[in-house]
Amino acid sequence: MAKIVVPKKACAVNPLKMSQPIGSALAFMGVKNCMPLFHGSQGCTSFGLVLFVRHFKEAIPLQTTAMSEVATVLGGYENVEQAIVTIVDRQKPSIIGISSTGVTETKGDDVEGFIKLIREKRPELDHVALVYVSTPDFKDAFQDGWAKTVTKLIETLVQPTAPDAERIPNRVTLLPGAHLTPGDIDEIREILEAFGLEMLALPDLSGSLDGHIPDDFTPTTLGGIGLEDIADLGRSVHTIAVGEQMRDAAVALAAKTGVPFTLFDRLTGLEVNDQLISLCTQISGKTAPLKVRRWRGQLVDAMLDGHFHFGGKRLAIGAEPDLLWALSQWATEMGAHITAAVTTTQSPVLEKIPSEEVWISDLEDLEKLAQGCDLLVTHSHGRQAADRLKIPFYRIGIPMFDRLGAAHQTIVGYRGTRDLIFELANMFMADVHEPNPDTWAIPKEQGHVGTAAATAH
């Protein structure tokens, strides 16, 4: 059992942590025709906007209530009302997702009350869904904001369903954690479709932030799950949640609709994907298709080929709790050792991390703990630490602004795990120092001793 360490530092140095509002906004971006709205200052919103643009290399819909110092002190009702009216008038969204920030949470704005007053005062806004999530950035972290938002979407938009209601037998709901990329969601969809199953994901970043070219410009989200599908989630036959962070959302959906759920704490590795395939066979009533069996065989072969390069390697990982758990458990199964593990927030999975200690801290501490490691794994802000440590660096998580294709990085399923093995094994192989004439020759003194010993023998 790992020991949880929370250092008492005066400030974070080279932060690993991403804030709750950022995670909340990203979750809203997986809903069709949505406009995420930060209730806070313009600076809070512009930071998140720039971060997402650099990571996804796409146009990002994100608005602000533009709270000034005076408005913050007096209360933000007028700012919230004006922001909603302006967005509806100019951008025609189906839903506005409102996330609080530190400044308005410190003031104590009652945004739920604001929304009730706006509904009473402006009936012309009745056709637009308004969902508010409390996400102060002075507590918790990125995956917490995401998880709270998904839970609130379920509580607000999903229609209650009787436990004995008729279900769509081949439809499954996916509740993906914040650590899953659009590519990961697409991979899970392809696995389910191989069994003849239809998947609805809440949220669905694979339809909105997968980097496609739209037919027409839209100021809101380009794709994602529609409001009608969210309301109808109670007709799915089963719910699959990925990541411990999604437990509350899965429980909320089950309580409201009676749909049973299965929670996978990760989908990176052989055994957990065998469990997913077993679940798919139970839901669909079909045996695993030939192509899925072939994917599994390729993963087993990749594990056989790759374990020579992972055995005994020391890894330092900095990531959100669920991503840290997925990577550390998989790497351990491949024969590596987790020498340094740093994360952002509390989670039930932290004590299970295969490391002596798990630090809830920053990249400065990760760099100190990573001395002598063979690989550093974290997001792009860890690149300078890897340079100073002179060890290979694998980028994963948000933000990843100095490489292309972040949205399509896939580490789930048989194929995602297979490709992850290849990527890291190739980095280990590339870092091996080849012998040269100065290093492969036997020193003369050793040669004389060996010759004498051989002669004496």
From TrEMBL:
GO terms for biological process: protein-containing complex assembly. GO terms for molecular function: nitrogenase activity. The keyword DNA damage does not apply. Residues 19-428 form the Nitrogenase/oxidoreductase component domain. InterPro entries: ChlB/BchB/BchZ, Nase/OxRdtase_comp1, Nase_comp1_CS, Nase_Mo-Fe_CF. Keywords: Nitrogen fixation. Pathway: Cofactor biosynthesis; Fe-Mo cofactor biosynthesis. Gene3D superfamilies: 6.10.250.1090, Nitrogenase molybdenum iron protein domain. Belongs to the NifD/NifK/NifE/NifN family. PANTHER family: LIGHT-INDEPENDENT PROTOCHLOROPHYLLIDE REDUCTASE SUBUNIT B. This protein may play a role in the biosynthesis of the prosthetic group of nitrogenase (FeMo cofactor). This is Nitrogenase iron-molybdenum cofactor biosynthesis protein NifN. The lineage of its organism: Bacteria, Pseudomonadati, Pseudomonadota, Gammaproteobacteria, Methylococcales.
